[in-house]
Amino acid sequence: MTAATTVHTEFVIERELPATPARVFRAWTTPEAKRRWFVCHDGMVNTGYELDFRPGGHELNRVRRPDGVEHLFQARFFDIVPDRRIIYGYHMQVGEQRLSVSLATVEFEPGGAGTRLRFTEQVAFLDGYHDREARIRGTAEGLDRLALLLHEAERAH
């Protein structure tokens, strides 16, 4: 049996996005939009998505890697300020192993050519798993997909 260990860390990722704070916020709060960008690696297939976006509401995202292993993200929303802030807690599981429990804060500020997004995550990695760099990389890839989605929508207008 793996020892019960906890490793704490935190990280911040910032992005300048080509849309208003209201449009960026909607990309986080609309199930159809979020499902399009909320995957961290190419080749993953979404096998289940739910979004109940309200304080006390939840989000569930199941994706399957090409080798068949399932990744599970389950979140609960704690604080929502439209077009300004989202705070949620979530846990991440791969196969049968729970990897982490996190508190995430997403802030939307007018700036530059659209919106300055600041994503802050406080993580408790569990039971021997503590790949901070992989978490940062996966989160950054998702935010890059968000930027691409917003950029494509902006070009279509």
Automatic annotation (TrEMBL):
Family, per entry: Belongs to the AHA1 family.
Which organism is this entry from? Lysobacter firmicutimachus
- Cite the InterPro entries for this sequence: ASHA1/2-like_C (IPR013538), START-like_dom_sf (IPR023393)
How is this protein named in the record? SRPBCC family protein
The highest taxon in the source lineage is Bacteria
User: Which residues belong to any copy of the Activator of Hsp90 ATPase homologue 1/2-like C-terminal domain?
Assistant: 19-145
Q: Name one Pfam family in it.
A: AHSA1
